[in-house]
Write a structure and sequence with these properties.
Elements: E1 6-10, E2 14-19, E3 26-33, E4 40-44, E5 50-53, E6 59-60, E7 67-69, E8 75-76, H1 80-88, E9 94-98, H2 111-120, E10 122-128, E11 130-134, E12 138-142, E13 145-150, E14 155-162, E15 170-176, H3 179-186, E16 192-194, H4 195-203, E17 216-219, E18 222-223, H5 234-247, E19 254-261, H6 265-277, E20 282-286, E21 295-296, H7 298-305
Helix pairs in contact: 1-2, 1-5, 5-6
Bound molecules: zinc ion.
Residues 80-81, 191, 238, 242 line the site of zinc ion (ZN).
């Protein structure tokens, strides 16, 4: 028996302040409820309330974060962790007000955004939830990096990274997503960077707001943060989190399996471009019932307990 799933928004508005990871500037953000079929929309209060939709077609090339830009000088940077929280908690409609051009970094993970959304509360709306159902495999590659979407029940994310640093090395994860597995297993995983790259990033005007407060920093093959890691495999969990945020720019939740191998924001965007370029690869459907599975798949549960 299938149950109609309804769209969701926030019960009330909620405010936070923080600093942009890249521009280093203070920014104030308000998450507001929005009507059915609004989607996720960014509103720049410092630019007369000009709006830009969280849509993959607005994503511009920026290697270190995901930025939407309307081509007329209106942009919002580093949206991926907030987008992941909205995707993970199944929020269809929200207006994100900002008085600057970058989402606050908070602690470098999606957990503070999950906390904000849960404080605001979540309400169902009188409209059916639509989902983007994958009908055939779409794959994009860039050298040794690859990203793909494959048909499947529910939504799952599989990721593999392989870094030379002894602090990371090879890590893999496969996880079926619902609000509980997202909240517990992925949302707290923080962004990460290498101390050796910080000077070059700052010279390029990036990571100006980055610190041990909002990123895991690796130097000399070890984690420099005094508190250590939140998960042994926090790095690959964060990459899965990034992919979930990037994929939500499709404009609807995905029914299918994502797999990323050393992929990042640019490849995730190309994957959505390739998907939408092939009209036989997807269909819009009403979401029904509960997901078929959630949490780690069996092989990962065995690996985790080994
Ligand atoms: Zn990230």
């Amino acid at each position: 028996m299938s149950v109609i799933v309804r769209q969701k928004t926030l019960k009330s508005a909620i405010h936070c302040r923080g600093v942009g990871l890249h521009n280093g500037l203070p920014v104030s953000m308000i998450l507001r409820p929005a009507a059915p079929d609004t989607g996720i929309v960014f509103r720049r209060t410092d630019r007369g309330g000009a709006e830009i939709a969280a849509d993959w077609r607005h994503v511009v090339e920026s290697p270190l974060c995901t930025t939407v830009d309307n081509g007329e000088g209106l942009s919002v940077a580093t949206i991926e962790h907030l987008m992941a929280a909205l995707a993970g908690l199944e929020i269809d409609n929200a207006v994100i007000e900002l008085d600057g051009d970058e989402v606050p970094a908070m602690d470098g993970s999606a957990a503070p955004f999950v906390f904000l959304i849960e404080c605001a509360g979540i309400v169902e709306q009188n409209a059916p939830r639509r989902a983007l159902k994958i009908l055939k495999t779409i794959r994009v590659t860039d050298g040794a990096s690859a990203a793909s979407l494959t048909p499947g029940d529910g939504f799952s994310v599989s990721f593999e990274i392989d870094f030379a640093s002894r602090a990371i090395r090879r890590q893999t994860i496969t996880i079926g997503l619902d609000a509980d597995s997202f909240r517990g297993e992925l949302a707290p995983a923080r962004t990460f960077g290498f101390l050796a790259e910080v000077d070059a990033l700052r010279a390029a005007g990036k990571a100006l707001g980055g610190s041990l407060e909002n990123a895991v920093v690796i130097g000399d093959d070890r984690v420099l943060n005094a508190e250590g890691l939140r998960f042994d495999d926090e790095f690959v969990r964060h990459k899965a989190l990034d992919a979930i945020g990037d994929l939500y720019l499709a404009g609807a939740p995905i029914i299918g399996r994502f797999r990323g191998v050393r992929s990042g924001h640019a490849l995730n965007r190309r994957l959505l471009g390739a998907l939408f370029a092939d009209r036989t690869a997807w269909t819009m459907t009403r979401m029904t019932g509960a997901p078929a599975y959630s949490g780690f798949w069996r092989e990962d549960a065995e690996r985790a307990s080994a």
